[in-house]
Amino acid sequence: MNATEITSQISNAANILNIEKWDYGASFSNDYSVQVDKGLAKQLKASQKQVLTLRVWNKENLVGITTTSDLSETGIRKALEQAYIASEYGNKNEKTDFSPLAKKPIRFKEIEKKSPLGIKKLLKILRSAESKLIDSHESIQSVPYNGLSESFYERIYANSEGALRNYCKSQAVLYLYARAEEKNKKPRSSGSVKLGYGVEEIDIESCIIEASSKTIAHLDYAPIKTGKYLVCLSPEAFLTMINAFSSIFNARSIIDGVSLSSKNSIGEMISIPALNIYDDGLNYKNISSAPFDGEGTPTKKISLINKGKIENFLHSESTAKIFNTIPTGHAGLGSKVSVSPDWIVVERSNDCKDLKTSLEHMSYKGEFVFIEELNAVHAGVRASQGSFSLPFEGWIYKNGEKCSIESATVAGDIKYLLKNIINIEQKGELTTNGISPHVWINELSITGDE
Amino acid sequence: MVTSSIKSPEIIFGECNKKLLEEIIFFGISLGADFVELFIENSDNSNVLAEEDFITSVSPSFGKGAGIRIFKDKRDGFVSTNDLSKHGLMRSISQAIEMLDISEKTNNEIFNGLNKLTDYTKSKINWLKDVPTINEVSEKLLLSTKALKKDNKVIVRKGSYSRNWQEVIIASSDGTYATDIRLHQTVGLNVIANDAQYRSNSSRRFGSHGIPNEFKSWDHEKAANEVYESSMNMLYADYVQAGQMPVVLANKFGGVIFHEACGHLLETTQIERGTTPFSDKLNQKIANEAVTAIDEGISEGSFGSLSIDDEGMEPEKSILIKDGILKKFISDRAGELRTGHKRTGSGRRQNYSFAAASRMRNTYIAKGKYTKDDLITSISDGLYCKSMGGGSVGATGQFNFAVEEGYLIKNGKLTTPVKGATLIGDAKEVMPKISMCGNDLELAPGFCGSISGSVNVTVGQPHIKVDSITVGGR
Q1: pLDDT tens digits, residue range A363-415?
Q2: pTM
Q3: Which of A142, A256, A409, A450 to probe by mutation at the B interface, max B CB count within 10 Å?
Q4: What is the mean pLDDT of chain A?
Q5: What's the 3-state SS for chain A?
Q6: Which of B76, B98, B400 has its CB closest to that of A375?
Q7: pLDDT of A53-105, one tens digit each?
Q8: What is the mean pLDDT of each successive set of 10 residues along chain B, which is 474 residues long?
């Protein structure tokens, strides 16, 4: 079914059930993925998926929601009926409506339409990549986590007031995580992930080189003494941190009492003045960009921190109404409409005179810990309390020499971290989660094995 | 995007589908597959959320789909689809055959038709009717959030209920033909307390399998008291000082560490990947002799119990470690084929869109002879981890777990609460350091995310003492 057909089918069923107000989000996808193990196909997978999330409003204007994968006539009717029953329990304290922007024009970058390469070609490419990675160094014996996938999908939003928008996209992902082991030493693992609109756009060679060099670089390791260190966060690590604490900017989290911010936090100085942070889902480098959110609101760039001050929150329709503003295009259509960032961009602001710009990760000769990648974020971050305690992969640098850290965690508080940034390097780097430069923190607690 | 519009016979739940399933399996075998498996699912789920003194969300969901797996030699191809028509399923079979690049035809005689249906649904037909109504769930959730409102330091109170009902048909070319109904219900409570600059967050989850009325008898007052007390105890806690120290891990959800740090390493998928240090350690000592560990799917009502796994096999009780000696791995069909370890009824998946994999069910360390006090009094300077948060295990087996509620142990006694602690280590080093096991084994429900999606599991243990472990802090 296409967007018009499914909308028409829902409209007809709603008429029969005397449901006047409804909206839906639907997703159709075809996915293909392969994994290999030392040249052999390990798991080959294809899936066709369809998911419909349907909301209806009852006579009291309360909302009910249902999700289904059954898009038959009976399935759609059942979904409408169930959503109507659920609407009896709709939240009376927070009225939800259509987004006022659901019919506003959307911006969508035209991407050349990709066709599936097919499992056989994916397999051939991944086998070759695995083989090259294993051959790149004698200590790399396997690539236990690997995969190449391509996904083709369509997303639709429509409502009973005539809003109807959809887009089709494709995305491909390659990930290679190698395992290296040397005699009388612990195994070490690291890897690389690359995205593209299609497999042919993925820089496979750089993925292999990155996975290999990162893994090998960790072979000579040593424990680190527990203590407080000058820390440089890689772009990926800093973005992981900002995303983990994005409830600071999330109006839904603020209303629910699980954010460190309050309604009055706009204008609050949350970091040093040299920091700017945007959410920029439509950035042309964002492979996963979507032109509208779950409520049909157009995606847009929004400033979250400007010269250290909180400038905006992210909103859905209902949170925007409570904050007397407009939705920002960050809503997810779920059992309770969620709000989340799209793609974070971190920059040094022009109010940066206090930064210690001599701290450059490529040239600084003093002692510091370089955190390349933070792990176990779901377990080690207490977003509502602002605290974190996370294992990481990284190095300790002394006199320009680096040594991989055997095993360690970094712990602290996000507000402390943001206010103790002492340098934001000039050059932003593209990652899968956004763009950020390297960011230096004056002092963070590191727990090591020594 | 298009979906099938061709009318053809379709799988119908609750009716005999044998002939249609045989045709589809035969089709796969005739195209050259060594083995064909169909996993067909019908689901009906419901979630209710209470925040403060209001129901803020009721969200039902339902769906149907099929997962089709083809084996050729030791390779497998998997296709999932929402199209349950004969045409749709055969198209998926063709797709899987093409993936595996099968051109050579197999001897059709390897498929002799399906066995007589093994019907595990007979006593479960009314489960969906017997679960609490939305009204009943809402009323009880609101009572539980009300019970959390004990003083004005509590700023967030949440109660959530989730019911997952799943009807499955499993048919494969070895003759397996079975149908089953699963019912999982969970209820969770979450509280945030705040006083000036101090903040704490506490949560608990309770759950069962196959007991439609369980929620009605759930003691919400007791649960609310437990969550409230935990949040109050932690509200003014100081950050723990990092270092190496002995720890006592509480029973119930304390078992999550064994599950994550060791249990996953005993799944055959880890042997296949070469990511477990235990692959060549069968019948060798890998843990302290105080440790006996079990994985089973048979405890009545436990969250990880099953009548059959997702490959149609009845679950067994597997003694993984006996007195410190590794005795068995957790295995599924692919694991048996590729590693030689016999299936244990542990082939599990979140739903039809995942291929089954070797996964844990109810996994726990067996009880020992000591009391909790014996363990505490044996430590002069250490940490008691009363409640564990989430954790993760890296590709090299290193784990990291957050301690939700912790207390310092000084001179054999519990003293001040501490926050911000994480336990860091790897199974190979930590398992020999579990020197004492208590006599108070208890289990707790949880969700485990891995290669075949999120599955319902039980973790558990008695109180245990680890002689030395790295505690991350400030």
Answers
A1: 999 999 999 999 889 888 999 999 998 989 999 999 989 999 988 899 999 99
A2: 0.91
A3: A409
A4: 94
A5: CCHHHHHHHHHHHHHHCCCCEEEEEEEEEEEEEEEEECCEEEEEEEEEEEEEEEEEECCCCCEEEEEECCCCHHHHHHHHHHHHHHHCCCCCCCCCCCCCCCCCCCCCCCCCCCCCCCHHHHHHHHHHHHHHHHHCCCCEEEEEEEEEEEEEEEEEEEECCCCEEEEEEEEEEEEEEEEECCCCCCCEEEEEEEEECCHHHCCHHHHHHHHHHHHHHCCCEECCCCEEEEEEECHHHHHHHHHHCHHHHEHHHHHCCCCCCCHHHCCCECCCCCEEEEECCCCCCCCCCCCECCCCCECCCEEEEECCEECCCECCHHHHHHCCCCCCCCEECCCCCEECCCCEEEEECCCCCCCCCCCCCCCCCCCEEEEEEECCHHHHEECCCCEEEEEEEEEEEECCEEEEECCCEEEEEHHHHHHCEEEECCCCEECCCEEECCEEEEEEEEECCC
A6: B400
A7: 999 999 999 999 999 999 999 999 999 999 999 999 999 889 899 999 999 99
A8: 59 90 96 96 96 94 96 92 95 93 78 96 95 95 95 95 98 97 97 93 93 93 96 94 93 91 94 91 97 97 96 98 98 96 98 97 97 98 93 77 94 96 89 97 93 95 96 86
Show which of residues 253-272 on chain B sit within 8 Å of chain A, judged by CB atoms. Answer: 272
Phi, psi angle pair for B392, to nearest 5°: -155, 160
Using only the alpha carbons of chain B, give its radius of gyration: 24
Both structure tokens of A328: 């920002």
Q: pLDDT digits over A96-114, tens only?
A: 999 999 999 998 877 788 8
One-letter amino acid at A147 equals G
Mention the CATH class of domain A3-215: alpha beta
Other residues' Cβ atoms within 10 Å of the Cβ of residue B166: 17
A399 phi-psi bin (left φ>0, alpha ψ -120 to 50, beta other): left
- DSSP letter for B438, please: B
The residue type found at B13 is F
The DSSP symbol for B258 reads I
Nearest-CB residue to B57 (from A45, A67, A336): A336
Q: How far does the CA of residue A3 sit from the closest CA of chain B (Å)? A: 9
pLDDT band at A449 (very low <50, low <70, confident <90, very high): confident
| ipTM for this model | 0.88
**In A, residues 263-322, which contact B (CB 8 Å cutoff)?**
none
Please give the Cα distance from A332 to A321 (Å, whole number): 16
pLDDT category at A448 given cuts 50, 70, 90 is confident
Q: Scanning every residue of chain A, which has its alpha carbon at the shortest distance from the alpha carbon of B197?
A: A385
Name the A residues in 371-430 with CB < 8 Å from any B CB.
Answer: 375-376, 378-380, 382, 384-387, 389-391, 407, 409, 411-412
Sorted by sequence, the CB contacts under 8 Å of residue A52 that are 6+ apart come out as A6, A24, A25, A26, A67, A68, A69, A71, A76, A79
Residue with the bigger pLDDT between A2 and B372: it is B372
pLDDT, residue A194, reads 96
pLDDT bucket at A163, cuts 50 / 70 / 90: very high
Q: Is A50 on the interface with B (CB under 8 A)?
A: yes
Are B273 and A145 in contact (CB < 8 Å)?
yes
Domain boundaries, chain A: 3-215, 219-241+353-447, 247-348
- CB of B435 within 8 A of CB of B365? no
Q: Are A258 and A382 in contact (CB under 8 A)?
A: no
Interchain CB contact of B41 with A (< 8 Å): no
Burial class of residue A224 in the structure, from the number of CB atoms within 10 Å of its CB (0-12 exposed, 13-18 middle, 19+ buried)? buried
Task: Give, as one character, the DSSP assignment of residue B269.
Answer: H
Q: Determine contact: B203 vs chain A, CB below 8 A.
A: no
